[in-house]
Amino acid sequence: MTQSTWNQRMVSAIGKHVKAIRESKSPKLSAERLAERVSQLGYPYSRSALVNLEYGRKKTLEVSELIVIAEALDVPPVELLFPGLMVEECEFLPGHFTTAWDSLKRFTGEAALGGIAMRDQREYNLSLMRALDHNTAQALEASARRSAALSDGDLARVEFEDSRLDALRKHDALLKDNIRAAGYDVGGGDE
Q1: Beta bridge mates, 91
Q2: Among 27, 12, 128, which Cα is nearest to 60's?
Q3: pTM of the full predicted structure?
Q4: In this structure, what DSSP letter does residue 30 have?
Q5: Which of 46, 100, 129, 152 would you label with 143, given CA atoms 20 to 30 Å apart?
Q6: Are 102 and 108 in contact (CB under 8 A)?
Q7: What's the whole-number mean pLDDT along residues 49-58?
Q8: 162/168 Cα distance (integer angstroms)
């Protein structure tokens, strides 16, 4: 098996899934209309290019093309890469078959594929980034609650939210330090 045939199988599977999603829309989305949507998103695309993808005649697919087609279909790009997440099998690497779910976890760096390790502590690093994202959302919510309490004149609630924000800032700094230590740039220095 060559890399070329694996790539063609992957593109063919994506094309079939694009067609299935397009036809499942209510009302049904025509190939012409989907091609128009893709073009409106800034990626000139013809109906014939879409039909060639859907029927397996297209042999390659650019990442940018995958992203804009997914956006036009209103689905995440990974849904096109790994259809049937919980039940279907896919060929993540040439000759390496696994569930679409395990392929997705590998793609996002959450898990190794059958002993093929890419880097140490990938799950830990990703969990740090998710924790930072969650911490940021918590800080925004606490800040909004503080503002509401201040408007209401509820000084006890303001004081509580201030202490919560202080704890979240400390946790934010700790998470960023750990993410930087893992070799990632979190931007902005000490925000």
Answers
A1: 97
A2: 12
A3: 0.64
A4: P
A5: 129
A6: no
A7: 96
A8: 10
Query: How far is the C-alpha of 53 from the C-alpha of 91, rounded, in Å?
Result: 19
Comparing 129 with 85, which gets the higher pLDDT?
129
Question: CA-CA distance, 180 to 186, in Å (whole number)?
Answer: 7
C-alpha–C-alpha distance, residues 52 and 15, integer Å? 8
d(CA 87, CA 112): 19
Residue 124, burial from CB neighbour count under 10 angstroms (0-12, 13-18, 19+)? exposed
Q: Are 99 and 83 in contact (CB under 8 A)?
A: no
Return the DSSP state at 176. Answer: H
Cβ proximity of 164 and 142 under 8 Å: yes
Pull the structure tokens for residue 183: 């070799």
What the block records as the tokens of 154 is 């509820």
- DSSP 8-state code for residue 183: T
pLDDT, tens digit, 9 for 90 and up, residues 91-126: 888 888 888 888 888 888 776 545 444 445 566 677
Q: How far apart are CA 133 and CA 137, in angstroms?
A: 6
